[in-house]
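pipeline: protein-struct stage 2 | run 1193 | BatA bacteroides aerotolerance operon
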Amino acid sequence: MLVIDLSYSMSREDMLHEGDYEDRLSTVKRVVSDFVERREGDRLGLVYFADHAYLQTPLTFDRRAIQTQLNQTVLKLIGTQTAIGDGIGLATKTFIDGDAPQRVMILLSDGSNNAGVLDPMKAAEIAKRNDTTIYTIGIGAGEMQVREFFMTRTVNTAEDLDEKALIDIAKLTGGQYFRARNAKELNTIYDTINALQPVQKATQSWRPRTEWFPLPASLGLICIVLVTIIRRNDV
């Protein structure tokens, strides 16, 4: 389950990519879309959180659906704050409702919990009780040089990131915490998680492309027509 922060701070342009800075959400959308592409045979879902949590895409084998929803994502969709606990809670509920045998959550955030009704650690405890592993990712450049008029100053663009909470959530659930300061690091993190959690291909429901059930009915109709013709010829 992909659990992604959609708070307003995700619009901050501090993620270095190919020599230029881009906003955090754009980096996440591109990197996560590439990750989804490599998860053939895996059931994936998409949960967003800001003022509250929102299930964007239920668990599905349809990677294109996940990528489409991800690429169409915009900020302020569900507010501007950060409800990390609600995001974990909703993702856990989705696992339970979907009877998912393998429960792995990848939680990405650039802030600290300041909204919602569920405490992040309480949510993590519930996730653990339901056999869910949570990998957490803290995103944001940290220190960077900002030019203002005729001078340059150093700013900490990740001052709101609650790394301790993300570390504790991962540790409690048997996962791992990662720190992404630029696009390259974020891509490496998802590569690592992809290797740590190889796809366990679940059995998909199967149905034939050709529907055979109309055949007996068709044969019955043909028999009735033939009997009618024979009777007419006998008269």
